[in-house]
Design a protein that fits this description.
Chain lengths: ~270, ~450, ~350
C-alpha cells in the first residue's frame, strides 16, 4: 500500500510517497510555496505520481503537515510538523534525542524520549532572526548566494556580534557593519552564530545527544558548525534534511492504516 | 607629569603610563597599566577611549579590581552581602558593620559588554529560560552559575514591589537555583492624598508618612539579618557614622557632577563620569578608598576648570542622558558625535541625594529608599529630569531604552511627553545592546542628528 | 449606577459596591496591535483625528476619551493595552482602578492619568507577604481607595453596609464570573486528556481555548490563570466579617489570591501543585501575554516543579486562539500527549 506525506512549509512544499509495506520511499519532490497553496500542493502531488507511474487510487492515505497543512484539500488528515519531524527523524536515526529544525520562517527544538516520541518542544516564529529568512536577507546584502554564504563564513577570523532580535533591525546592523568596512566573512559568520545562539536559547540547559539537524537551513554550509559551537555537542545533519517532515507525515499515514508491518505502532 | 586633557586609546594609555611611572606616579595597591585587564578577558577596554589623568587611571583600576577586593575581604574573614535592586540603600547599612562588605550582583549587567560576550553569561541565562526579551541584568544569573565573577554572597538581599518586573523575575529565578534571598518591600510611592500626613523625601519628593514607616520596618528586617550575619548588633551611633560616610561620598559626587556638567568646557568625559556616579551605589567594595578615588577625580576637575581646559571643544552639544547604557562605548560615541554629557538620570538619583542626617537613621534610610525614581510615577521621574536639565543647562535629552526592560516602553514615552511640554528641547530615544558595534553606525547617525539639531537651534 | 472599571483580582468589588458604585471588571477584547486606537474608533465609527496626543474615541454618550498612543509602542503588554483601550472605549465610567501588580500596568497608569481621559486610581499591591507591615499596606490602600471612590461620587460605607454587601456578594466570588466555564473537580474518569491552564489574565476571546483543546482531544480541567482560580479571593469568615469587616475583606483577597508575582512565590507553587494533583491534569498550558516578564520567567520553573509536560503559549494581539501559530503549538502538544 502507498501513503503520501506532504509538508506544506512557509517557503516550500515537500512531498514523499512511501510504500507502507516495505518502508521504501517511492518518490519525492519539492516545489516553491505560493499564494495558491492548495493547487501548488496538488500540482506537486500529480507531478510525483507521474514521475513514479503511480496512479492516485493506489495512494491509500495522505497526511499533510506544516504551516499550510490545512490548505491541502486532498489530505485525509493533518498532523503538526513537530510530530512529523519527530517521526521522520526517528525513522532515519532511531537513537536521536534532540532535533533542531530550522526552516524558512521558524525554528524548532524537539526533544524525543527513548522510544522516539516527542517529549517536549519549543518553537520560535516571532523572531525571524533565528530562521532561514535571516540567511536569505544577509546573503542578499552581502551580494552572495545562500550556497556561498557558508564558505564565506568559514573564512572569518572574528565573527561580528549581531545583537538585534528582529530581522529588520538586524539587517540595519548589517548595513552598518558594511559601512564600517567589517569584512563580509565576519558578518556572515556573525549571522550564523546569531541564528545558532537563538536556537540554543530554546534548548534550555539540557541538550541530549545525539542531536539531528533538519530543515532547509541544514543545507547551508557552516550552520552545522555554528550549532555545534553554541550547543557544545556534535550535531548530525539528517539525510535529505528538508524532507524529514514529509517523510514523517508519510510514515504516520502508514501507521494509521490497519497494517504496518515494519513500522510498529505509533 | 601633567599634559593637556584629552582622551586616549588603551594603547596610548600604556605609553602614558610608562611616562607617569618613570616620573614617579604614586599608585594605590590595585594600580597598574590599564591594558593588563585585557588579560582577564575585558576585551572591550581595547575599544574605549579614556581620560588621560592619573585620577581617571585610578578610577578605572579601582573599578576593574573589585572582584579581587571581594575575595580578599572574604579571605580576611569578612562576610559578603549581595544586595540587589535597591541601588544604594542597603550598602549604607552593611558598610556600617566593620566585618561586612556589600556589592551588587546586578553589576554583572556590564560583564557581557566588558568581556564582549566571551564569558557566555547571557547564554546561561537563555538556558534558564531568561532570554533576550529580559534586560541585560540577566547576565547576573550566568555569573552565579559560573562563580567566576564574584564570590557567592553569604547573604542575598533584594528589594521587591515597585521595581522592574525583569529584575524581580530574574531574582526569583536566582532564588530557585538555590540562592536564598531576603526580600524586602519598596512600595509604589503615590502622591499623598489631601488628608494624608506626608513627608518630604530626599530630592524634594512628597510621600505619605505611612509609607516611610513601612519601608523603615522592612529595612529593620534587613538590618536584623545583617546583624545576624555579622554576629554583632548595629547601634545608632555606628549607623549614623555609616550615613555620614555615605554622605561624604554623595556630596563629593554632587560637587563633581555640578562642576563637570556646568563647566563651559567639559573637564571630564562621559564614560569616567558614568563610572564615578555608579560608585555612589556600591563603593566598589571599599567605601574609604571609594571616597579617595572620587576626591582625586574632583581635584583633577577643579584643576582643569581653573585652567580653563577640558577634554572636548567648548561648542559640544550639552546632552542630558537618561538610563544607563549596557555598552560603555555609547558614552564615547556621544562625544565623537560632538556631544557632551550635562546631566544624567541613571535610575538612582536617590543614591546621589544626601541622606537626611537630622532624622533617626533608619527613618532617614527609609526615606532615601522610597525616593527611588523607580518607586514613583514616570511623571515624577520626568519632572526631576526637567529640574536637573534646567540646573545643568542641557540642550537636548537622550533617553536610552534598556533592551528588554519592561518599564521602558511606557516610561520612555511619559518622560518624552513631560520633557517636551516643559523644556522645549530635542529628545532622542535610542536602544543600546550590550555590544553595540553593529548598531554603532545607526546610533551614530541618530546622535549626530541630535547634535546638529542642537547647534542649529543655537543659531536661531 | 456609576461604574468603576478594573481588571485586577486584587480590586475588591465589595468595597466599590459598598460605596454605592457599580464595580465592573473588564475582560478586554483583543485587537490588532497596529493602529489599535484607530481600529477601536473605526469600530464605533467615532474616530476623531482632531487630537494629537493620542487617538480620540467618542463614546455613545458623547464623552471624548483619549486613547494614549503610547500604548501602541513596541514592548507594551497586549493585555495592558487592551484593558486600557477597552475601558476608555466604554461609555461613562466614573473611574478606573488599576494596580501595581506589574510594571506595565503601573506605567500604563501614568500614561492614562497623563492623558487625563478618566479619573484613575493606582492600588498599591504588595509583592512580599511575610510581614505584618506589608499586609497593613494593602489595608491602608483600601482606605486610600475609599477617598478616591468618594471623589468619584461614592459614599464611604458604614461597617454595617459593608457587611451587608459582603454577605450579598459571597455567593458570587468577588462579583465576577470566571471567564472559562471550567469544572475543576470530579473529572478523573473523563476519557480525554486533562490539561491545566496556568498563566496571566485572559481576554474575552480566550474562551475559545476550551474548544481548541477539545478539538485536539483534550479537556481543560483546571483554570489556574489570574482570571480563574489563581485570582479568586477566599470565602469570607462569617464571624470575623461581622467583627472586622474591612480587615476580613483585605485578608480574603490577600490570602485567597495565589500570585506568581509575589516574592518569593513559593506559596503560589505550593497551591498550584496541590491543585494540579487534585485535578488529575496530565499537562500544563502556560498562557501568557507577550512581554510579560513575570510569567515568561516562570515557564522553565513550572516545568521543573510540576514534572508535567508544559506548553509555553505566548500570545500577542494578532495571535487569537485559533490562529495558525496557536493551533500548531497546541496541536503538537496534544499529539505529544496522545
Amino acid at each position: 500500500m502507498i501513503c503520501a506525506g506532504i509538508d506544506a512549509g512557509s517557503r516550500t512544499i515537500k512531498m514523499v510517497l512511501l510504500d507502507s509495506d516495505s518502508g521504501k520511499v517511492l518518490g519525492r519532490g519539492l516545489s516553491d510555496q505560493g499564494v495558491e497553496q492548495s493547487s501548488l500542493a496538488q500540482s506537486l502531488f500529480e507531478s510525483i505520481l507521474n514521475e513514479t507511474g503511480i496512479v492516485r487510487d493506489e495512494v491509500r492515505r495522505v497526511v499533510a503537515t506544516g504551516y499550510g497543512r490545512n490548505a491541502v484539500e486532498f489530505a485525509d488528515t493533518t498532523i503538526t510538523e513537530i510530530t512529523c519531524h519527530a517521526r521522520g527523524v526517528r525513522h532515519l536515526a532511531p537513537a536521536t534525542a534532540t532535533i533542531v529544525d530550522i526552516g524558512g520562517e521558524d525554528s524548532k527544538l524537539i526533544r524525543l524520549d527513548g522510544n522516539g516520541k516527542v517529549r517536549d518542544f519549543a518553537m520560535n516564529d516571532r523572531c525571524a532572526a533565528g530562521t532561514g529568512r535571516f540567511l536569505e536577507v544577509v546573503a542578499e546584502r552581502l551580494a552572495t548566494s545562500l550556497d556561498d554564504l557558508g564558505a564565506m563564513a568559514a573564512r572569518s577570523r572574528t565573527p561580528a556580534a549581531i545583537s538585534s532580535m528582529c530581522v529588520v533591525f538586524a539587517e540595519t546592523e548589517i548595513i552598518g557593519l558594511l559601512a564600517a568596512h567589517t569584512p563580509r566573512e565576519d558578518i556572515a559568520a556573525g549571522v550564523q552564530a546569531a541564528i545558532a545562539a537563538r536556537v540554543a536559547g530554546m534548548a534550555g540547559r539540557k541538550v541530549t545527544v545525539p542531536i539531528v539537524f533538519t530543515g532547509g537551513v541544514a543545507l547551508v554550509s557552516g550552520m552545522k558548525g555554528a550549532l555545534e559551537s553554541v550547543l557544545e555537542q556534535p550535531v548530525e545533519i539528517a539525510p535529505d534534511p528538508q524532507m524529514t517532515g514529509a517523510l514523517g507525515a508519510a510514515l504516520l499515514a502508514a501507521n494509521s492504516l490497519d497494517h504496518s508491518p515494519f513500522l510498529g505502532v505509533d | 607629569m601633567t599634559e593637556a586633557p584629552r582622551q586616549l586609546t588603551l594603547e596610548e594609555w600604556d605609553r602614558r603610563y610608562e611616562q607617569l611611572d618613570q616620573a614617579g606616579l604614586i599608585q594605590p595597591r590595585y594600580g597598574g597599566r590599564l591594558s593588563r585587564h585585557l588579560h582577564d578577558g575585558d576585551y572591550r577596554l581595547a575599544k574605549l577611549r579614556y581620560d588621560n589623568s592619573p585620577a581617571a587611571l585610578r578610577l578605572w583600576n579601582f573599578l576593574l579590581t573589585e572582584e579581587d577586593r571581594l575575595r580578599e575581604a572574604r579571605e580576611c574573614g569578612k562576610r559578603v552581602v549581595g544586595t540587589m535592586k535597591d541601588l544604594g540603600t542597603v550598602p549604607v547599612i552593611a558598610y556600617s558593620f566593620s566585618n561586612l562588605v556589600a556589592f551588587y550582583p546586578d553589576g554583572a549587567w556590564w560583564i557581557p559588554c566588558v568581556m564582549e560576550l566571551s564569558a557566555g553569561l547571557l547564554e546561561i541565562a537563555d538556558s534558564l529560560g531568561i532570554d533576550e526579551s529580559f534586560c541585560p541584568v540577566r547576565a547576573m544569573l550566568g555569573a552565579f552559575v559560573t562563580r567566576c565573577h564574584f564570590p557567592v554572597p553569604d547573604l542575598l538581599v533584594c528589594s521587591a514591589g515597585a521595581v522592574c518586573d525583569d529584575f524581580s523575575a530574574i531574582a526569583q529565578r536566582l532564588e530557585d537555583l538555590g540562592h536564598r534571598i531576603l526580600w524586602w518591600e519598596v512600595p509604589h510611592r503615590p502622591v499623598p492624598e489631601p488628608n494624608e500626613v506626608s513627608v518630604l523625601l530626599p530630592g524634594g519628593l512628597p510621600a505619605p508618612e505611612r509609607q516611610v514607616d513601612l519601608v523603615k520596618s522592612e529595612l529593620l528586617r534587613v538590618k536584623e539579618a545583617l546583624e545576624a550575619l555579622a554576629g554583632t548588633s548595629l547601634d545608632e551611633t555606628a549607623l549614623h557614622a555609616g550615613i555620614k560616610k555615605a554622605n561624604e561620598i554623595r556630596r563629593c559626587l554632587a560637587e563633581l557632577r555640578r562642576l563637570v556638567y556646568t563647566a563651559q568646557c567639559c573637564p571630564m568625559p562621559a564614560l569616567e563620569m558614568l563610572i564615578a556616579e555608579m560608585l555612589a551605589i556600591h563603593y566598589c567594595s571599599d567605601r574609604d578608598e571609594c571616597l579617595r578615588v572620587l576626591e582625586a577625580l574632583l581635584s583633577e576637575v577643579r584643576r582643569r576648570i581653573a585652567s580653563g581646559v577640558g577634554v572636548l571643544g567648548a561648542d559640544a552639544a550639552r546632552v542630558f542622558w537618561v538610563n544607563p547604557v549596557a555598552d560603555l562605548r555609547a558614552m564615547n560615541l556621544l562625544e565623537a558625535c560632538g556631544g557632551r554629557i550635562c546631566g544624567t538620570e541613571y535610575l538612582f538619583t536617590h543614591a546621589l541625594d544626601a541622606i537626611p542626617q537630622d532624622r533617626p537613621p533608619m527613618e532617614a534610610l527609609a526615606a532615601t529608599a522610597l525616593a527611588d525614581p523607580m518607586a514613583g510615577s514616570s511623571r515624577q521621574r520626568a519632572e526631576r529630569i526637567c529640574r536637573d536639565i534646567g540646573e545643568f543647562g542641557a540642550e537636548a535629552v537622550v533617553v536610552s531604552r534598556i533592551p528588554g526592560a519592561s518599564h521602558c516602553a511606557l516610561e520612555g514615552w511619559t518622560i518624552q511627553e513631560v520633557v517636551r511640554s516643559k523644556m522645549d528641547i530635542p529628545i532622542l530615544e535610542i536602544e543600546v545592546p550590550p555590544v553595540a558595534d553593529a548598531a554603532g553606525p545607526g546610533l551614530r547617525t541618530r546622535l549626530e542628528a541630535l547634535v546638529e539639531t542642537v547647534k542649529r537651534r543655537r543659531r536661531t | 449606577m456609576t461604574q468603576v472599571l478594573y481588571t485586577s483580582p486584587y480590586v475588591p468589588a465589595e468595597w466599590i459596591a459598598a460605596h454605592g458604585l457599580e464595580p465592573v471588571r473588564v475582560t478586554p477584547a483583543r485587537a490588532p496591535c497596529v493602529g489599535r486606537a484607530s481600529s477601536l474608533a473605526c469600530r464605533a465609527g467615532t474616530h476623531d483625528p482632531s487630537t494629537d496626543s493620542g487617538q480620540a474615541l467618542r463614546t455613545p454618550t458623547g464623552a471624548l476619551q483619549t486613547y494614549p498612543a503610547a500604548l501602541d509602542r513596541q514592548g507594551v503588554c497586549p493585555f495592558v493595552r487592551n484593558f486600557v483601550a477597552d475601558a476608555l472605549a466604554r461609555s461613562g465610567p466614573a473611574a478606573l482602578v488599576m494596580t501595581t501588580v506589574c510594571d506595565q500596568m503601573r506605567r500604563a497608569f501614568d500614561v492614562v492619568t497623563g492623558a487625563g481621559a478618566v479619573p484613575a486610581f493606582l492600588l498599591n499591591v504588595p509583592s512580599t507577604w511575610q510581614s505584618v507591615a506589608v499586609r497593613r499596606l494593602y489595608l491602608d490602600e483600601l482606605d486610600r481607595l475609599s477617598g478616591f471612590l468618594v471623589r468619584a461620587g461614592g459614599v464611604r460605607p458604614s461597617d454595617g453596609q459593608l457587611i451587608d454587601i459582603m454577605i450579598a456578594r459571597e455567593s458570587e466570588p468577588h462579583g465576577l464570573k470566571p471567564i472559562l466555564p471550567v469544572a475543576t473537580r470530579g473529572l478523573r474518569t473523563h476519557p480525554t486528556i486533562l490539561v491545566a491552564l496556568v498563566g496571566g489574565p485572559l481576554c474575552q476571546e480566550d474562551i475559545a481555548i476550551l474548544d481548541l483543546v477539545a478539538e485536539f482531544g483534550g479537556y481543560v480541567v483546571l483554570d489556574a490563570t489570574e482570571s480563574g482560580a489563581a485570582g479568586t479571593r477566599r470565602r469570607f469568615d462569617r464571624r470575623r466579617l461581622r467583627e472586622e469587616p474591612l480587615l476580613e475583606l483585605a485578608d480574603a483577597y490577600l490570602d485567597g489570591i495565589h500570585d506568581v508575582a509575589r516574592r518569593p512565590n513559593d506559596e503560589f507553587y505550593a497551591w498550584l501543585l496541590r491543585e494540579l494533583a487534585a485535578s488529575d491534569a496530565r499537562a500544563v498550558i502556560v498562557y501568557r501575554h507577550l512581554w510579560c516578564d513575570l510569567w515568561h520567567a516562570e515557564v522553565e520553573r513550572l516545568r521543573e516543579k510540576s514534572g508535567l509536560p508544559v506548553l509555553d503559549l505566548d500570545t500577542g494581539d494578532g495571535d487569537a486562539i485559533g490562529s495558525g501559530r496557536t493551533r500548531t503549538r497546541l496541536g503538537a502538544f496534544m499529539e505529544m500527549l496522545t
